[in-house]
Write a structure and sequence with these properties.
This protein has 558 residues and is α+β, with helices and mostly antiparallel strands. The strands form four sheets. Strands 1, 2, 3, 4 and 5 form a five-stranded antiparallel sheet that branches. The chain has a three-stranded antiparallel sheet with strand order 6-8-9. A two-stranded antiparallel ribbon has the order 7-10. 26% of the residues are buried.
């Protein structure tokens, strides 16, 4: 695989930085295996390890490397954490701790971006605009401001040049995926191409602030009747793909327990309100905040909770909600074979999976917690054990379901910080039961029956026509079947390459034999007393042999 020269030249500094960070955290062997130094003409001596590797686990080293490499790689870690069936559980848990905090950029750049996006001087839109940001991350930073109409707002401004950085990183990741596929074949089990595609789709949405603005509007509509949950208003006339303006939240960070107590906030009540908010999002709306960690939750006077940062949201489709309902019915009724059947219907269990062993492990898991009071259940421990089973049997749980699991675990940790006696499992039980039995509601049953009759009608109409067409083709001898092999392309390529090398070797051998015969003949064309054509034959055979050896060594396979 050759990296295009133009792209390599444009992104060489970033390649060098990525190689340096990976080398720093002890992944030099992977760089060697991928031939990075050869392709980029890099020398190892420019890279220096600056961390004590023995003090860190491999999972911690991966997390720290991703954080240091910036937004694209932080997002890559988040995508990976949604695939516990692909990566070890220890790494999944470590990647959920990814942080995204960097130094702010200059206010002159902020002003330039806002004025360019809003197509007017800053003063035309805002009567005041704080020069010091209140938050800064790898994609953007946030400033307080006041509009000309007197509304207190926060303005989220995208980092200058971040799109170009992300585009360059995605090109580099494309190259790295190709190198992994070619030189590290064992990496294919982790589906690097699929992960990169999912990352590209996710990050495109996140760098367009219009998507986050729409998320806020949907969230605001879903909680319009909830007085204890505050969702800020979006100011669309001051919002673009790179600038997002929304109402200011004058609250206390939910992790600032001392300040909450000073303001007379009821922490136990806030934990309950936050729990209802999270559970309503997941089990009723199917649209939820995927990262309700302490930095994204604020508390207002009057025991009101206010979530912020709506860039990362989870969405459960009607079909996914139905699938989740089927799964929860089996869990609530303590029916492990029903869970296995749901997995089979969803097609998330591989053909090689031992279904009897899976059912036995699920039975152990379910009955282990069957008699334990709900108040003693720990959501993280529960999910960790579930993830272990998922990983062991290579169960391909959808990313959306993984997001909701992560949201539940994250919020439980926040709630326990507010109230050590808080019990999310007990509070979630009514929501789970409602979701589990939603399929039996008259409206849902009527919808399913209507869909069934439409499908049957289509089948009865099309079936005679299709049968007639097949019989006609059969009678005319035009019916044919196409067989398509899968996974043999590389085998065919290797066989072709091996046969070419074998043929090349035979040609070299034939030249050597022919040259040896010529050496025994008497001829007037000599060199150092030996037949000239015999010597030339040896030289030619030697050059071809060296060429063949070099080709074999460059392929990395003797």
């Amino acid at each position: 695989m050759k990296i295009p020269l133009l792209r390599r030249a444009k992104t060489l500094p970033r390649y060098r930085q990525i190689a340096g960070v990976l080398f720093k955290y002890g992944f030099g062997h992977l760089l060697d295996q991928m031939r990075i130094f050869t392709f980029l003409r890099l020398r190892k001596k420019i890279l220096k390890k600056r961390v004590k590797l023995e003090e860190l686990t491999y999972a911690q080293r991966i997390r720290l490397a991703l954080e240091e490499l910036g937004p694209t790689f932080v997002k890559l870690g988040q995508v990976l954490s949604m695939r516990p069936f692909l990566i070890p559980l220890e790494l999944v848990l470590e990647l959920t701790r990814l942080q995204d905090e960097v130094a702010p950029f200059r206010f002159e750049q902020v002003k330039q971006i806002v004025e360019k996006e809003l197509k007017a001087p800053l003063e035309e839109h805002f009567s005041s605009f704080d020069t010091i940001p209140i938050a800064s991350a790898s994609l953007s930073q946030v400033h307080k401001a006041v509009t000309r109409e007197g509304e207190k707002v926060v303005v989220k401004v995208q980092r200058p040049g971040i799109k170009q950085i992300i585009d360059a990183d995605m090109d580099i990741l494309k190259d790295l995926v190709s190198l992994l596929d070619k030189y590290v074949p064992e990496s294919r089990q982790y589906d690097p191409k699929g992960i990169r595609e999912e990352l590209a789709k996710s990050i495109r949405k996140e760098i367009d602030f219009n998507n986050e603005a729409r998320n806020i509007e949907v969230f605001r509509e879903n909680f319009k009747d909830e007085k204890a949950v505050f969702v800020p208003q979006v100011f669309w006339d001051k919002t673009t793909s790179r600038v997002l303006t929304m109402g200011y939240i004058n609250g206390i960070k939910i992790s600032n327990l001392e300040e909450l107590d000073k303001k007379g906030i009821d922490r136990k009540l806030i934990a309950q309100i936050g729990g209802r908010m999270v559970l309503k999002q997941i089990f009723e709306d199917g649209f939820f905040h995927a990262d309700p960690h302490p930095g994204n939750l604020f508390v207002l006077e009057g025991n009101v909770i206010a979530p912020v940062d709506y860039g990362m949201m989870g969405k459960l489709s009607e079909t996914t909600m139905d699938e989740l309902a089927d799964l929860l019915i089996s869990v609530v009724t303590w029916h492990p074979s029903g869970i296995v059947k749901v997995y089979q219907d969803l097609g998330v269990v591989g053909e090689e999976a031992n279904l009897r062993a899976l059912e036995a492990d699920l039975a152990d898991f379910i009955y282990k917690y069957h008699k334990i009071p709900l108040s003693r259940l720990d959501m993280r421990v529960l999910m960790d054990e579930a993830f272990e089973i998922i990983h062991r049997y290579n169960i391909h749980i959808q990313a959306e379901l993984m997001l909701f699991s992560k949201a539940m675990i994250t919020y439980e940790e926040v709630a326990k910080m507010l109230d050590p006696e808080y019990d999310l499992v007990t509070q979630s039980l009514p929501y789970i039961k409602n979701l589990a039995y939603r399929k039996f509601k008259p409206k849902v049953v009527l919808r399913d029956v209507s869909t069934l009759f439409q499908d049957l009608r289509s089948l009865f109409i099309l079936l005679p026509f299709e049968l007639k067409r097949i019989i006609k083709k059969l009678g005319k001898g035009q019916l044919s079947f196409t067989f398509q092999h899968r996974g043999l392309e590389k085998l065919i390529l290797e066989l072709d390459r091996s046969s070419n090398r074998l043929s090349f070797s035979l040609i070299i051998a034939a030249i050597i034999v022919g040259s040896s015969l010529i050496m025994r003949l008497e001829t007037k064309y000599t060199l150092f007393g030996y037949p000239l054509f015999g010597i030339l034959g040896y030289i030619f055979a030697g050059l071809l042999g060296v060429w063949l050896v070099i080709a074999i060594l460059r392929s990395g396979r003797l």
